[in-house]
Amino acid sequence: MSVNSSLFNKFSCAVLVLAALFTASVAHADQKRCLSECKPRIGIVSAFGAEAELLLEQTRKKREWRINGNRFTTGVLRGNPVVIVLSGVSMVNATMATQLMLDHFRVERLLMSGIAGGVNPANHVGDVIVPESWAMPMEVYWNGDGSLPAACGNAGDVSCLGLKLATENGKARPDFQVDAAGGKISSGLFMRDSFVMTAANAPQGEFRFEFQADPDMLALARTLRPALATCGPKNPALCVAIQPTLKVGGRGISGTAFLANASYRTYLYETLQAQLVDMETAAFAQVAYANGVPFIAFRSVSDLAGGNDFKDVGAFFGSGLAETNEASVTLAFLEAWKQAQLKKK
Predict the structure, then answer these.
(1) 28 burial class (0-12, 13-18, 19+ CB within 10 angstroms)?
(2) Above 70 in pLDDT, residue 12?
(3) 293, 108 in Cβ contact below 8 A?
(4) Does 121 sit behind a cis peptide bond, omega within 30 degrees of 0 on the bond before it?
(5) Model-level pTM?
(6) pLDDT in tens, 108-123
(7) Cα–Cα distances in Å, from 96 out to 81, 85, 131, 313?
(8) What CATH number is given for 32-136+198-344 in this structure?
(9) Could you give the 3-state DSSP secondary structure of residue 117?
(10) What is the pLDDT of the chain when averaged over all its residues?
(11) Which residues of the chain are in CATH 3.40.50.1580 domains?
(12) In this structure, are residues 326 and 334 in contact, taking their beta carbons and an 8 Å threshold?
């Protein structure tokens, strides 16, 4: 064999090795992330300890994982392989816990299970609401004089700041009006869309006001007929006067503020027809959307946000009714989901 032939063969081998490494790298990048475990699972996120405990109690074949201080529990719940995490209250905690879950486990669908404050006055303590979409109306542009922001020239244009006002029918959504002597005055708080980057819309990204729950999961939720409790397990003497029900549809909202303001609650209902408010789900929904993972959220009404006029509020704080009902619906959904998957086989 000549020297040139030997060098050519070595060069060819090197090229083949590099090509194989490149192919493997691309294939790895296309695979779902699973830094800790790669078994396909449904990811479940809850904010309060009581919410998660009711689900963990019924999870079988449990294994705990500690990731950056967070406890993730894998196992089988109502026949479904799951991974459950307690995020802790707040938008930031929900974001971090959900992204950690997606990075470390092969999560094919996401589910949020917990309690929330009521916004729609027609809903009652113990009702379980499954919104079709989730928004973050407390992401705002706070204008100084209450007029429509015009930072970039035209009224409503804030694009030069990398922002976009939330609109409806081409017009900026109205700002929150503060109660004052003689009437209402503008707060200057105008809702914004959220910026989100995905593999599909990169590098420019996109602005969205809300994130849609998975239609297949919503359709299944509409078929559920769970038996919801009127009295919670902690204090059976405290019961609601109206039988709780499961309601699927409408808009849920989330924000960084613990909402205890009846005037702002009314604004959210009248402006957005919001059903309930919490401090986690919309952030969870944005992470799900950014990662291309279908999601659904079950939230049970604990009280009327900022309202002392909610007669059944004691039933939540005294008996644990709300978390009991949301867990019942979550479990019923998981059981129905398992049966639906079996029918497809």
Answers:
(1) exposed
(2) no
(3) yes
(4) no
(5) 0.87
(6) 999 999 999 999 999 9
(7) 22, 11, 22, 31
(8) 3.40.50.1580
(9) strand
(10) 88
(11) 32-136+198-344
(12) no
